[in-house]
Design a protein that fits this description.
alpha/beta; Pyruvate-ferredoxin Oxidoreductase, domain 3; 6-stranded mixed sheet; 8 helices; 42% helix; globular
Length: 192
Protein backbone atom coordinates (compact mmCIF):
# COMPACT_ATOMS: atom_id res chain seq x y z
CA UNK A 1 0.00 0.00 0.00
CA UNK A 2 1.24 3.45 -0.91
CA UNK A 3 1.23 6.34 1.55
CA UNK A 4 -1.73 8.55 0.74
CA UNK A 5 -4.11 11.24 1.90
CA UNK A 6 -7.70 10.53 0.88
CA UNK A 7 -10.73 12.77 1.26
CA UNK A 8 -14.00 10.82 1.01
CA UNK A 9 -17.03 12.99 0.23
CA UNK A 10 -20.66 12.13 -0.31
CA UNK A 11 -24.11 12.62 1.10
CA UNK A 12 -25.68 10.96 4.10
CA UNK A 13 -26.45 7.29 3.63
CA UNK A 14 -23.89 6.58 0.89
CA UNK A 15 -21.46 4.69 3.11
CA UNK A 16 -18.62 7.19 3.32
CA UNK A 17 -17.92 6.23 6.93
CA UNK A 18 -17.78 2.52 6.10
CA UNK A 19 -15.43 3.31 3.22
CA UNK A 20 -13.05 5.06 5.61
CA UNK A 21 -13.09 2.04 7.91
CA UNK A 22 -12.28 -0.28 5.00
CA UNK A 23 -9.33 1.96 4.10
CA UNK A 24 -8.24 1.81 7.75
CA UNK A 25 -8.36 -2.00 7.71
CA UNK A 26 -6.47 -2.02 4.40
CA UNK A 27 -3.76 0.16 5.96
CA UNK A 28 -3.59 -2.13 8.99
CA UNK A 29 -3.09 -5.20 6.79
CA UNK A 30 -0.27 -3.35 5.01
CA UNK A 31 1.36 -2.44 8.33
CA UNK A 32 0.75 1.29 7.84
CA UNK A 33 -0.28 3.93 10.32
CA UNK A 34 -3.75 5.34 9.59
CA UNK A 35 -5.69 8.23 11.06
CA UNK A 36 -9.37 8.92 10.31
CA UNK A 37 -11.51 11.95 10.99
CA UNK A 38 -15.23 12.04 10.21
CA UNK A 39 -17.34 15.16 9.70
CA UNK A 40 -21.02 14.32 9.64
CA UNK A 41 -22.72 17.65 8.98
CA UNK A 42 -26.43 17.22 8.18
CA UNK A 43 -25.83 13.68 6.97
CA UNK A 44 -29.20 12.34 8.12
CA UNK A 45 -30.93 14.92 5.93
CA UNK A 46 -28.93 14.17 2.80
CA UNK A 47 -26.24 16.74 3.54
CA UNK A 48 -22.51 16.44 2.93
CA UNK A 49 -20.42 13.89 4.77
CA UNK A 50 -16.65 14.29 4.68
CA UNK A 51 -14.11 11.79 5.95
CA UNK A 52 -10.38 12.40 6.09
CA UNK A 53 -8.08 9.36 5.79
CA UNK A 54 -4.32 9.66 6.14
CA UNK A 55 -2.15 6.60 5.60
CA UNK A 56 1.63 6.44 5.99
CA UNK A 57 4.56 5.38 8.13
CA UNK A 58 3.99 7.82 10.98
CA UNK A 59 0.83 9.93 10.78
CA UNK A 60 0.50 12.62 13.46
CA UNK A 61 -2.72 14.41 12.49
CA UNK A 62 -5.94 12.99 11.01
CA UNK A 63 -6.98 15.98 8.89
CA UNK A 64 -6.15 16.31 5.19
CA UNK A 65 -5.45 19.96 4.44
CA UNK A 66 -6.65 21.67 1.25
CA UNK A 67 -4.22 20.98 -1.58
CA UNK A 68 -2.83 17.83 0.09
CA UNK A 69 -5.19 15.02 -0.97
CA UNK A 70 -3.69 12.41 -3.25
CA UNK A 71 -7.23 11.25 -3.92
CA UNK A 72 -10.70 12.67 -3.47
CA UNK A 73 -13.30 9.89 -3.57
CA UNK A 74 -16.55 11.61 -4.48
CA UNK A 75 -19.68 9.50 -4.09
CA UNK A 76 -21.68 12.12 -6.03
CA UNK A 77 -20.74 14.59 -8.80
CA UNK A 78 -21.52 17.86 -7.02
CA UNK A 79 -19.50 16.73 -3.99
CA UNK A 80 -16.51 16.28 -6.35
CA UNK A 81 -16.85 19.90 -7.44
CA UNK A 82 -17.32 21.17 -3.88
CA UNK A 83 -14.22 19.49 -2.52
CA UNK A 84 -11.87 19.55 -5.54
CA UNK A 85 -9.75 22.22 -3.84
CA UNK A 86 -8.43 19.55 -1.46
CA UNK A 87 -6.66 17.79 -4.34
CA UNK A 88 -2.88 17.96 -4.85
CA UNK A 89 -1.86 19.23 -8.29
CA UNK A 90 -0.89 15.66 -9.27
CA UNK A 91 -3.82 14.04 -7.43
CA UNK A 92 -6.91 12.34 -8.83
CA UNK A 93 -10.62 12.62 -8.10
CA UNK A 94 -12.58 9.38 -8.35
CA UNK A 95 -16.15 10.38 -9.13
CA UNK A 96 -19.30 8.30 -8.93
CA UNK A 97 -21.16 9.72 -11.97
CA UNK A 98 -24.44 9.85 -10.02
CA UNK A 99 -26.31 13.11 -9.37
CA UNK A 100 -28.15 13.42 -6.05
CA UNK A 101 -30.11 16.65 -5.79
CA UNK A 102 -29.41 18.60 -2.59
CA UNK A 103 -32.30 20.19 -0.70
CA UNK A 104 -31.80 23.72 -2.15
CA UNK A 105 -32.17 22.25 -5.66
CA UNK A 106 -35.20 20.17 -4.65
CA UNK A 107 -36.92 23.24 -3.18
CA UNK A 108 -36.05 25.38 -6.22
CA UNK A 109 -33.79 27.75 -4.28
CA UNK A 110 -30.75 26.72 -6.36
CA UNK A 111 -29.87 24.90 -9.57
CA UNK A 112 -27.69 21.83 -9.89
CA UNK A 113 -24.46 22.97 -11.59
CA UNK A 114 -24.04 22.09 -15.25
CA UNK A 115 -20.92 20.57 -16.82
CA UNK A 116 -19.20 19.54 -13.59
CA UNK A 117 -16.58 17.55 -15.51
CA UNK A 118 -15.85 20.53 -17.76
CA UNK A 119 -15.46 22.78 -14.75
CA UNK A 120 -13.06 20.35 -13.07
CA UNK A 121 -11.02 20.02 -16.27
CA UNK A 122 -10.91 23.81 -16.73
CA UNK A 123 -9.51 24.04 -13.20
CA UNK A 124 -6.79 21.53 -14.10
CA UNK A 125 -8.17 18.71 -11.96
CA UNK A 126 -7.48 15.13 -13.03
CA UNK A 127 -10.52 12.94 -12.52
CA UNK A 128 -11.85 9.49 -13.35
CA UNK A 129 -15.60 9.10 -13.74
CA UNK A 130 -16.85 5.71 -12.55
CA UNK A 131 -20.42 4.44 -13.15
CA UNK A 132 -20.34 3.25 -9.54
CA UNK A 133 -24.11 3.10 -8.99
CA UNK A 134 -24.58 1.01 -12.13
CA UNK A 135 -21.70 -1.30 -11.17
CA UNK A 136 -23.03 -1.63 -7.61
CA UNK A 137 -26.52 -2.50 -8.84
CA UNK A 138 -25.04 -5.12 -11.20
CA UNK A 139 -23.17 -6.57 -8.20
CA UNK A 140 -26.45 -6.83 -6.30
CA UNK A 141 -27.16 -3.62 -4.38
CA UNK A 142 -27.27 0.13 -5.00
CA UNK A 143 -25.77 0.57 -1.53
CA UNK A 144 -22.29 -0.64 -2.61
CA UNK A 145 -21.20 2.51 -4.47
CA UNK A 146 -18.60 2.98 -1.72
CA UNK A 147 -17.13 -0.47 -2.30
CA UNK A 148 -17.00 0.04 -6.08
CA UNK A 149 -14.94 3.21 -5.57
CA UNK A 150 -12.63 1.44 -3.11
CA UNK A 151 -12.02 -1.20 -5.78
CA UNK A 152 -11.17 1.53 -8.30
CA UNK A 153 -8.79 3.18 -5.81
CA UNK A 154 -7.08 -0.15 -5.14
CA UNK A 155 -6.44 -0.73 -8.85
CA UNK A 156 -5.14 2.83 -9.39
CA UNK A 157 -2.69 2.48 -6.49
CA UNK A 158 -1.47 -0.92 -7.70
CA UNK A 159 -2.86 -2.87 -4.75
CA UNK A 160 -3.61 -6.58 -5.04
CA UNK A 161 -7.35 -7.24 -5.02
CA UNK A 162 -6.92 -9.95 -2.36
CA UNK A 163 -5.53 -7.45 0.14
CA UNK A 164 -8.55 -5.19 -0.15
CA UNK A 165 -10.89 -8.20 -0.05
CA UNK A 166 -9.33 -9.06 3.32
CA UNK A 167 -9.97 -5.48 4.51
CA UNK A 168 -13.64 -5.88 3.49
CA UNK A 169 -13.89 -9.17 5.38
CA UNK A 170 -12.67 -7.38 8.52
CA UNK A 171 -15.11 -4.50 8.12
CA UNK A 172 -18.37 -5.55 6.44
CA UNK A 173 -21.10 -7.59 8.12
CA UNK A 174 -20.97 -11.25 7.00
CA UNK A 175 -24.46 -11.14 5.45
CA UNK A 176 -23.36 -8.23 3.20
CA UNK A 177 -19.91 -9.59 2.35
CA UNK A 178 -20.63 -11.41 -0.94
CA UNK A 179 -22.35 -8.45 -2.59
CA UNK A 180 -19.59 -6.11 -1.42
CA UNK A 181 -16.87 -8.44 -2.71
CA UNK A 182 -18.63 -8.43 -6.09
CA UNK A 183 -18.86 -4.61 -6.04
CA UNK A 184 -15.20 -4.32 -5.07
CA UNK A 185 -14.16 -6.50 -8.01
CA UNK A 186 -16.41 -4.51 -10.36
CA UNK A 187 -14.68 -1.25 -9.37
CA UNK A 188 -11.25 -2.87 -9.59
CA UNK A 189 -11.95 -4.29 -13.05
CA UNK A 190 -13.43 -1.01 -14.31
CA UNK A 191 -10.02 0.69 -14.12
CA UNK A 192 -7.92 -0.36 -17.12
Amino acid sequence: MVDMNVLIVGVGGQGTLLASRVLGAWADIAGKDCKLSEVHGMSQRGGSVVTHVRIGSDIAAPIVSPGEADFVMAFEKLEALRFAYYLKPEGTILINDQEIMPMPVITGAAEYPEDIYGRLAADGKKYISVPALELAETAGTSKAVNTVLIGALAKITGEELETVEEALKRTVKPKLLDVNLAALKAGYDFIK
